[in-house]
Design goal:
The structure is a single chain. The protein has twelve helices and two strands; from the N terminus they run ααααβαααβααααα. With about 280 residues, it is mostly helical. The chain folds into two domains: about 15-200, no CATH class; about 200-275. Strands 1-2 form a two-stranded parallel ribbon. Helix 5 (about 95-125) packs parallel to helix 8 (about 185-200). The protein is flat and about 65 Å long.
Length: about 280
């Protein structure tokens, strides 16, 4: 066996006992938690900016996305994209609701801001267990995963959240029923949609590792393109105004992510074949 082949198939760097691995994991988790706590404290102190300029901003007609969509709707002749003067009326019905919301959003902000560091700590824990060739092929994984998560959060915040708030916030079963949105409901919607899209944007990374171990293949993903497209169009139709243009605006990036997953899966299969 050549020296190069030996290096590629060499055992992981360190052989730790179960308690050694547990102790190492505890250290990574502690540092990750500390980073989240420190950034959460910063977000807690910056209450006015966090809420007025970020969390509550997408509901306002002058939010950048709402203004751009209105201009796009005017140009394309799609008036439903222009949200007009509709502004959601957010109310608090719990005595401690605003304080607990402040705490919750501070933690969520800390978690999002610390995500790249947390991903790096997870990678540091996993890396010693990888073979040399696996380490070489996974260089840049932390950067890619962090960028994908951030892109998912930004995509959700600047496009999905405003469209979702406009649709559900203005939907009426009768003109005699007025929408007054509870603060907890508004916060839950913004947080869940934003964080979930951040995780969804990690799809290419998950696809890569699943393809490496042979669970899925690029051919399988190609065969299911049409089903995926139908699912994405259905999701887009639910959270957007009833027009084709807004559905396309949401569907194209998500479908592009799926196509990227196909390319990633094909690359992972080629590497696996070359290694074997």
């Amino acid at each position: 066996m050549s020296a190069k082949k030996k290096a590629e198939t060499a055992e992981p760097e360190e052989e730790l006992s179960f308690w050694g691995h547990l102790d190492a994991l505890r250290g990574h988790l502690f540092r990750s938690a500390l980073a989240i706590i420190l950034l959460s404290i910063g977000a807690f102190i910056s209450r006015t900016y966090i809420f007025d300029s970020i969390i509550l901003a997408p509901k306002n007609p002058d939010f950048i996305t709402n203004r751009l969509l209105c201009k796009l709707g005017t140009w394309a002749g799609v008036p439903s994209l222009c949200f007009g003067d509709v502004e959601l009326d957010i109310i608090n019905i719990n005595l401690s609701g605003q304080f607990t919301t402040h705490m919750y959003i501070s933690f969520f902000a800390g978690l999002v801001l610390a995500a790249p560091y947390v991903i790096w700590e997870i990678w540091r824990f996993i890396r010693p267990a990888l073979y040399e060739n696996e380490r070489r092929h996974s260089r840049g994984a932390v950067v890619v995963m962090s960028l994908l998560f951030i892109l998912g959060v930004l995509f959700s915040y600047f496009l999905i959240v405003p469209l979702t708030l406009n649709f559900f916030g203005t939907y009426q079963v009768s003109e005699s029923v007025v929408n007054q949105i509870a603060l907890s409901s508004y916060i839950s919607t913004v947080v869940s949609v934003t964080f979930s899209l951040g995780v969804v944007f990690e799809l290419p990374v998950f696809v890569y590792f699943l393809a490496k171990v042979g669970i899925i293949t690029a051919d399988f993903l190609r065969r299911n393109r049409k089903y995926t497209l139908v699912i994405l169009l259905t999701i887009s139709a639910i959270i957007t105004p009833p027009d084709v243009l807004s559905q396309i605006l949401v569907c194209i990036p998500l479908y592009g992510l799926y196509e990227l997953g196909i390319l990633v899966a094909a690359r992972a299969q080629k590497r696996s074949a070359a290694e074997n």
